[in-house]
Amino acid sequence: MFMAIHSQNKAAAAELPRIASINLCTDQLLVALADPTQILGLSPYARDAVRSWDAAKAAQFPPLSGGAEDVLIANPDVVVSGRFTKRATRELLKEKGFRVVEFDVARSLDDVKKHIRQMGELVRHPDRAAREISRLDAAVAHVREVASRKPYRVLAVSRRGWVAGSDSLTTSLLRTVGLSNAAGELGNRTGGLASLEAIVSLKPDFLLVSSSSDLTQDEGGAFLLHPALERFYPATKRIVIPEKLTACGGLTLIDALERLASELERVTR
């Protein structure tokens, strides 16, 4: 009986699709939901400690160059990519007969859940996808409870004064947990650069930033250290969530939401 079950398990594992990812965001979903033996390779940024959700975990899998050549050698059953991954690479792989599944940019929490389900179905582990969506919902509920004390206005600001627009994942997340993105008052749907004067004039309750460091390597990062911003928005008025937790809109949003809850607890004491 044991031998029969063991043989069945081996046969089932052999039937699972072997997948290569050529996009950082699909890397994240693939590693979280697939069996390790299904993963033939990840994008070159997966091992980048600055950009990757977990460079150490990604290092367990073969690195891909991002081009078509090593994907052709790996010969996967499926290639997963972003909609804006290099078009020439995607088209060449399609021409060679590979199944290429393209994931759109997530602009809402519903999009994130859709992508989790899509990858779960692709790797044939929909149960894992369902569990992760349940964890995501629980994290949202936790933040909503913390944020319910007051309808805070938050302004997400990054390098050179870039603010997220009304049609963005950041705005969707804030709205879902009961906060508002003050950038919507600037009338920009897709996001754009805001001046120091505009940011100060908006008078948001808090700034949402990706780093608490008082050091910067270039002028883009120096924007957030400008004396005017530091005067009105010291550390006690800054919510810090590392960009790599929110850049893809994948399962790292669970960690991002938990971080948001703890940061709200800190700045609203």
From TrEMBL:
One of its GO terms (biological process) is cellular response to iron ion. InterPro entries: ABC_Transporter_SBP, ABC_transptr_periplasmic_BD. Residues 18-268 form the Fe/B12 periplasmic-binding domain. SUPFAM superfamilies: Helical backbone' metal receptor. It comes from the Bacteria. PANTHER family: MOLYBDATE-BINDING PROTEIN MOLA (PTHR30535:SF34), VITAMIN B12-BINDING PROTEIN (PTHR30535). This is Iron ABC transporter. It comes from Bradyrhizobium jicamae.
